[in-house]
Design goal:
Number of domains: 3
Radius of gyration: 26 Å
Number of strands: 5
Shape: globular
Order of helices and strands: HHHHHHHHHHHHHHHHHHHHHHHEHEEEE
Helix content: 55-70%
Number of helices: 24
Strand content: under 5%
Length: 570
């Protein structure tokens, strides 16, 4: 019995999105954020510190640490990748650029996995559009390609992808391997070798990147869906396969990888049970809504339009598989101490689910998406330009005053290349809006062109026009500069209760000789965080150390540390 199918798509609606435009859009999004910026505070800087420690041989490759401080969430592979690149980087080359290359490749992997995962899900028989009485319905391959284009555009448009997708952290590695696993489970009914290898790499990469529990959940859930799905292809000509045997093999591999992660010490109990408070649930719901925008409303629309097939796992793999990825990631978000980084793993599945809303959208809904996107991103772009002009000229005075108040000491300088890139992106946006408003053949991915392009535009404008301001506010170079002016390069300093990101910044950018507190550390300087607002901790021996300078971040005033000088060195 065939269940009602809401997808009614003609062949004229599945024309291919021009590949040069799609590739250029992806490259612009990837490049903006990986090129031309400093490492930012907290997770980004901390990861660089652990990579540098491995590269210098100061920590075990099976237990990354920085001056004895271990990561909050154990991971191996992301730090290995960064350390290997640092080992291969020639002396004098910009290491903070080269170390981002493998992570740019992981973001690219997330793009590719999302596209191919959406493609193969759209190839499933239940996802195909309704056949017309006199022909003319979309061909399966063309339809799947158009849906995959829509899925990738939805992924690009996700607001939560911008910053976390450009950090050299385990979260980005987890995203790349999640997308690879998503592709593998989607393509497994059609091919064996490629998806099988991808599944093993995805599961192992997730575990080695600090997410063994998610790897176990996704692997076992995907094995169950594959076992229930009796169809192995989009047509009857596909050879019959024993899907249950394949599912059992996948489950065994998943358990074996999880056991290996346990042996490597990557299983750490970090569950934080949800608090029964309004603040907790309100904060998490708000995070879910803005982080996955605009995918979540389209995903909900897909659930409603395909509701008669959603829970029939035998024929609705295109819905059950992304639904399982979403449920697993959202559940992890509720139980994790880093909800945004856990929710990042849901974006490929959210994008695929959003794509299945496209062939069912009514004209009024599509027009609403276009108008809202046009107004929202055009307004954001105008604000970015106005604030940049104010930083350069002081006019309008109010934005200039706001920047001076929020970033005291910041000196804005005109840079020609960022200005050229920003201008080019703005002109491209204007052309795209004109194209979208004009008459052209209908394409099911057209409703996501403006969201994806608008998100990329605003991210690129931020990473060009506002990059000096963001570096000033988010990096730790100002604190490093103050510290280097006090501590000579030929003297060492002991650190005590200093944040790992600050340690990483002082070593990475300041090239300071920092040592952990111990009886053997005979250094004339001590770096320690204040106990209260600016008070010196009571654990400091005031008979041995005298306060010298309180170093404070110019924007994040709560980030500070005392530079203490040994009394014998006076």
């Amino acid at each position: 019995m065939n269940l009602p199918n809401p997808a009614i798509v003609a062949q004229a609606s599945v024309r291919r999105l021009p590949r040069p435009a799609l590739i250029l859009l992806c490259l612009a999004f990837i490049g903006a954020g990986f090129i031309g910026r400093d490492a930012w505070r907290s997770a980004d800087l901390s990861a660089l510190g652990f990579m540098s420690a491995l590269q210098r041989g100061e920590a075990s490759w099976l237990e990354p640490a920085l001056l004895g401080i271990k990561p909050d969430f154990p991971a191996l592979l992301p730090y290995w990748l960064g350390a290997w690149v640092l080992q291969l980087t020639p002396a004098g080359w910009p290491a903070d650029f080269w170390v981002r290359i493998p992570f740019a490749a992981l973001l690219t992997l997330a793009f590719v996995g999302t596209w191919y995962g959406s493609y193969y899900l759209a190839r499933t028989p239940a996802a195909q559009p309704v056949a017309f009485a006199f022909g003319g319905e979309a061909k399966p391959t063309d339809y799947a390609r158009a849906m995959a284009d829509g899925g990738l555009l939805a992924f690009l448009a996700s607001l939560g992808l911008a910053q976390l997708g450009h950090e050299t952290t385990p979260a980005l590695a987890q995203l790349g391997f999640t997308a690879l696993l998503f592709y593998a489970l989607s393509a497994l009914p059609y091919h064996r070798t490629g998806p099988a290898i991808s599944a093993v790499i995805g599961l192992a990469g997730l575990s080695l990147s600090g997410a063994p529990a998610i790897s176990l959940l996704l692997g076992l859930g995907g094995a169950c869906i594959h076992a229930i799905d009796k169809r192995t292809g989009a047509d009857e000509s596909t050879p019959t396969r024993n899907t249950r045997a394949e599912a059992i093999a996948l489950a065994l591999i998943t358990v074996l990888i999880a056991w290996s992660a346990k042996a490597l010490g990557l299983w750490v109990w970090k569950v934080e049970w949800p608090a029964l408070t309004w603040e907790y649930w309100n904060g998490h719901v708000q995070l879910l809504l803005w982080f996955t925008w605009p995918c979540w409303p389209l995903a909900l629309y897909s659930v409603w339009r395909w509701r008669k097939q959603l829970f029939n796992l035998n024929i609705s793999r295109h819905l059950s598989l992304p639904a399982w990825f979403i449920v697993s990631s959202v559940g992890s978000m509720l139980l994790s101490g880093s909800p945004d980084r856990s929710l990042l793993l849901a974006l490929p599945a959210f994008a695929a689910m959003a794509a299945f809303a496209l062939p069912t959208l009514r004209r009024q809904v599509a027009a609403l998406i276009d108008w809202f996107t046009l107004l929202f991103f055009t307004g954001c772009g105008i604000i970015i330009w106005v604030v940049w002009i104010a930083m350069q000229t002081g006019v309008p005075p109010q934005p200039a005053a706001n920047v001076a108040r929020l970033a005291p000491g910041f000196d804005a300088r005109f840079q020609i290349m960022p200005f050229v890139f920003a201008t080019t992106a703005t002109l491209a946006w204007m052309w795209l809006v004109r194209w979208r408003a004009g008459r052209h053949r209908a394409a099911i991915w057209k409703s996501l062109v403006l969201p994806a392009s608008g998100a990329s535009l605003c991210w690129l404008l931020l990473m060009t026009l506002w990059m000096p301001l963001l570096d000033y506010a988010q990096s730790a170079k100002t604190m490093v500069r103050q510290t280097r002016e006090i501590i000579p390069s030929d003297q060492c300093a002991v650190v005590m209760n200093i944040d790992v990101a600050q340690i990483a910044a002082l070593r990475w950018y300041g090239h300071l000789d920092l040592r952990k507190a111990s009886p053997q550390a005979d250094c004339p300087w001590l770096l320690t965080e204040p106990a209260g607002n600016t008070e010196i901790s009571a654990t400091i021996d005031r008979a041995a150390w005298a306060p010298h300078t309180l170093v404070r971040h110019p924007v994040a005033g709560s980030e500070m540390f005392w530079i203490m000088k040994r009394l014998e060195a006076n």
